[in-house]
């Protein structure tokens, strides 16, 4: 009798590492990657016992047979040939990241008016290490998130933006993250955005998948906003049902700085957005807004951590969700007020509408306060459309279907109205309206498959 020895199953952390080549460990990126790899081996892939990932099984997603994209691939096409922005009147500086790597013909950073520098992260490391080294991995390395550590261990490129002291950007920078492949791939882009003192800037991030294949994106973006500076971040996710999108946003704010982030999730099979904010200077202000619309069996999870590390800081969180069919959503928001962070004002609200009994929403607002002179509130609601409001509209002769649409649109409007870019706000208003009606059109050449 032949005895076949059964090999024990591979540890999931080890299995995921086998998809990536060993790092050379050279230069600044090599140092960052080596440190991050040590952290990944310590933290590992977060499981269900991890409070921040209680409602999203990322281990199951990572176990799929995605091929890692570890180097830029040669392409003989122009981006304009495969993708055009769906808002022709949008006045922005446009940059593209394809499969996690900066995609432009220029092999150097571009200088925009006011001394603003923009381009690929690898270009920035090569040309301006004096700008990159003080900030790259400075705050992300404090995180115990194993997925963020995985990105930092292997990400080799992404987007870079530097706004010098006293510069005011004439118009926003638009970063289009595209995924295009005939394989089932995993991409890990990394971005770094730096604002000096007394600077103002705007950033629009658009995520699209130009493929019908299953795709996994695990992205890390770091933002450093200096003293008296202001940054507006707007993100639009509109991807197909075979897309799994995991993102980590790390925001570090200096004294009297202001950051507003608005995340609009219109479509995607599995979306997991992490937002970590550190208010590290007195008088800093952060406003985080989010809106997600999900149906079928989509899963959308938002996790926020707002760290009040200095006194006289203000933060607000307003996240809303509309769930239909068998969709599942989650919101986990935590406000930490450290000792000495007196005069903190922090507000958090999460509101959700379930259009059917089969939809599910998990919400977990949290406060952790170690100072005694603060104003902090939080709250969450999960329910159906208000029957009294619905009755009022119908009593005025509005058909039930239209009345429901009006109430849902009014529910979403609180987030949409905060978008500062007028053409973008108008377009998102239209997209949200059509999404609520189940009529969301495909973007130009974008493979959004609603039947999967």
Polypeptide structure, described:
- The structure is a single chain.
- The protein is α/β, with parallel strands linked by helices and 452 residues long.
- The chain has one domain (12-322, 419-436).
- 21% of the residues lie in helices and 38% in strands.
- The chain is built from 10 helices and 22 strands.
- It has helices spanning 12-17, 27-43, 58-62, 79-82, 121-127, 129-132, 146-154, 387-395, 400-416, 422-436; strands at 67-68, 93-98, 101-102, 110-112, 116-120, 158-163, 173-179, 185-187, 190-195, 200-209, 215-225, 230-238, 243-253, 258-267, 270-279, 285-294, 299-308, 314-323, 328-337, 345-354, 360-369, 375-383.
- Strands 1, 4, 5, 6, 8, 9, 11, 13, 15, 17, 19 and 21 form a 12-stranded mixed sheet that branches.
- Helix 2 (27-43) runs antiparallel to helix 7.
- It is globular, with a radius of gyration of 22 Å.
- Residues 1-9 and 441-452 have low confidence and may be disordered.
């Amino acid at each position: 009798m032949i005895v076949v020895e059964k090999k024990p199953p591979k540890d999931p952390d080890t299995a995921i590492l086998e998809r990536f080549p060993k790092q050379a460990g050279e230069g600044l990126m090599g140092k960052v990657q080596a440190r991050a790899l040590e952290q990944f081996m310590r933290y590992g892939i977060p499981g269900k016992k991890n409070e921040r990932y209680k409602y999203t099984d990322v281990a199951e997603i990572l176990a799929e047979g995605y091929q890692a994209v570890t180097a830029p691939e040669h392409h003989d096409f122009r981006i304009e040939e495969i993708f055009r922005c769906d808002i022709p009147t949008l006045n922005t500086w446009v940059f593209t990241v394809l499969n996690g790597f900066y995609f432009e013909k220029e092999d150097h950073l571009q200088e925009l008016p006011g001394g603003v520098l923009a381009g690929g992260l690898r270009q920035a490391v090569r040309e301006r290490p004096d700008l990159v080294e003080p900030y790259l991995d400075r705050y992300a390395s404090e995180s115990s998130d194993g997925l963020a550590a995985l990105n930092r261990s292997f990400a080799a490129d992404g987007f870079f933006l530097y706004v010098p002291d006293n510069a005011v950007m004439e118009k926003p920078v638009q970063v289009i993250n595209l995924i295009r492949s005939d394989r089932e791939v995993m991409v890990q882009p990394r971005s770094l955005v730096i604002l000096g003192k007394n600077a103002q800037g705007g950033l629009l991030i658009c995520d699209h998948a130009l493929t019908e294949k299953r795709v996994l994106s695990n992205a890390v973006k770091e933002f450093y906003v200096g003293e008296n500076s202001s940054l507006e971040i707007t993100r639009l996710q509109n991807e197909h049902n075979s897309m799994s999108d995991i993102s980590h946003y790390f925001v570090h704010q200096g004294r009297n700085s202001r950051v507003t982030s608005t995340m609009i999730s219109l479509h995607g099979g599995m979306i997991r957005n992490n937002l970590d904010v550190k208010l590290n200077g007195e008088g800093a202000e952060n406003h985080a807004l989010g809106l997600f619309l999900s149906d079928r069996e989509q899963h959308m999870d938002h996790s926020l951590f707002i760290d009040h590390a200095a006194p006289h800081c203000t933060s607000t969180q307003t996240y809303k969700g509309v769930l239909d069919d068998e969709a599942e959503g989650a919101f986990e928001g935590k406000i930490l007020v450290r000792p000495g962070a007196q005069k903190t004002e922090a507000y958090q609200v999460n509101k959700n509408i379930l259009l059917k009994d089969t939809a599910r929403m998990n919400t977990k607002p949290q406060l952790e306060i170690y100072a005694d002179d603060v104003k902090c509130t939080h709250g969450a609601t999960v329910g159906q459309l208000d029957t009294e409001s619905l009755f009022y509209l119908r009593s005025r002769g509005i058909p039930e279907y239209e009345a429901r649409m009006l109430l849902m649109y009014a529910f979403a409007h609180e987030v949409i109205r905060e978008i500062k870019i007028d053409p973008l706000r108008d377009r998102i208003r239209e997209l949200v309206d059509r999404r609520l009606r189940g009529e969301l059109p495909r973007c130009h050449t974008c493979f959004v498959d609603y039947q999967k």
